[in-house]
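WP5 quarterly update. Target: F-box domain-containing protein. Source organism: Massariosphaeria phaeospora. Length: 395 aa.
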Amino acid sequence: MECTQYAHVTPIDQVPIWLLPIVEAARALRANPQAPALYTRLRTLQIRFDMSCSPAILYLFCLPRLRLLHVDGLAQESTEVEPQLWPVSNVASDLEELQLTHVEAPGLFIAHMIRSCKALSVFKCHRVEESKWPDAHMPIKTADESRAWCAEIMSAVEQHSSSLTTLELEPHDTFLRHDEHYRYAPLDSFKKLDALDALIAPFMLLMGTPSSTTIAECTQTSYLRMLDVLPPNLVYLCLSLSPWTAPGAVNETILDLKSRPTIKLYCESLLQYVHLVYDHMKWNAPLPLQFWKMKDDFAFFCGISFDYLIHDAIDFDHVDDVFDEQQLNTLAKELARHGPMGIEMATHFSGCAQEMKAKVMDCLGLDSDWLLTEEGQSIMFVELNALDEEWRSEC
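Structure tokens (predicted):
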């Protein structure tokens, strides 16, 4: 392995003592790849930081057999390093899987980690989650900064277009994009990833927002076709939305995936699974999307399995392990307005599915026997869900 030889490198004295032996060994390998060294057979490394750490952790990319690196808690101040001081050169590491969680590091630092690898097959990156009420000590990021962060990372990811099979990118900036007049340009890097078969990302990163309308005024024709922005060989797609990012025409935009090119042979590389995750749904407002109808429409199109999950719709008290009853009751009544379809939608609420399902059935005056009827089986997609499980096991 060839690593850049610099006269001055990043400080190593800030590395946690429990990690120091590995970093020291990796640094020795950088200085002399042929010299005997420890940890040369290390293949998997998971690191969790509770405080800032020196950029010297980049030496880890010099470990010759390291294939999976997971870093949790990479702080902003730990990555302030001049480009000329990077201890690892581009396309030097044989790392195959890079996972970064609770990241505060700038996009440039992460981009260099990506470019240091010869051929990544898996890249997962979750930025530290923004709070609706940011901590006074945390810098408040803007939507422009958040998009630039993603753009820097995706620019580096393109280097691995022929090897990357799994990509997960989550900026966790839900509360930054609440202005319906804000213009968010889509990133065009995704469609260049020829080998990608699994993509997990926010809807807005792929589709952006139209330049001439507000989010509320969006129509399907306001956007590029989703098929035109997705990687060509994608099999699994998971999109996240929220009240601040969902376009008015999301139902039609996602359903447009049904018009994809001619279906290939069974279980070949072609879009087969679409998963929608809706975050922070307002419990005291009408349903933002036609969830049941979307699943029903996909059910009539052989080849794509559609499912959805609704996060954080109900406040949860982690101390007493109870839900807010008022919120549960209000949302159950809203679901009941959709008739029996509301029962099926209730089963997709993360953390409170059983409670929600029971309350909706009570509102409709239905008992558990209804679930066994032909109508109940059809509305709950019992047969379809069974086929999906069989299909997944065979593929």
